[in-house]
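Here is one chain, start to finish.
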Amino acid sequence: MHPDLATVKELQEVDGTIATLTSRIEAIPSQIKKIEDQLNAFLHDHEEHKNRLAANQKERRDLDADIQMIRGKISKHRDQLYEMKTNEAYKTMLHEIEGEEAKIRGIEDQVLERMEEAEQLDRMVHEAAARLEGEKQRVANEKKQLETERANDEALRREADGRRKTLAAALSETTLRLYEKTRKSRGTAVVQVIDGSCGGCHVKLRPQFYNEVRSSDALLTCELCGRILYHVPPSVGEDIGEGTRVSM
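Its structure:
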């Protein structure tokens, strides 16, 4: 085995760890924002319901005032009935009174609608008020947990960065340059040969080249994708290709 192979394999594992940790760390702000947005949405809905309840109460007061005003007009019209000089004038006044009474019935229907809405809004406001502190505490706890996870992952990443520097320094300049170039272009720089094929591009290796990978101490790369190849010898009794088995 080439002296750099074990080191470059470990370097790839460390780079994978760093990538995973970085992804988790970078996801924390959006996760925090998400739970903050949930609380803000809850608070916004709570305020909207309180505002709507207050508006509902004002609307009912205004409607009640309209009813009282119309009732006053009806009372005045009834007093005027006795002053009518003709039947036609009397009937006209009665028609006006009936129209005002119809207005009252329409307004009373609106009042009932507002009362039903107010009952629902009042229930929602009280339920939200009862949940408010719990929601704030939940969000605070979740944010604290995420901040703790970020701090732990940052510590692990610093440790992995240190290990990466050590591994990179242990590699020959040629191997490190090959690894970095392949990792950048292919994502994965070091792959195992599986069933005689490259574990990266899955193309079958030429038999002679496959034998070189299995037996050579050189650092060999896939002839198609350029990834660094390594071979793991099969265990006793395990297939080694072409129907051959290791003798017992």
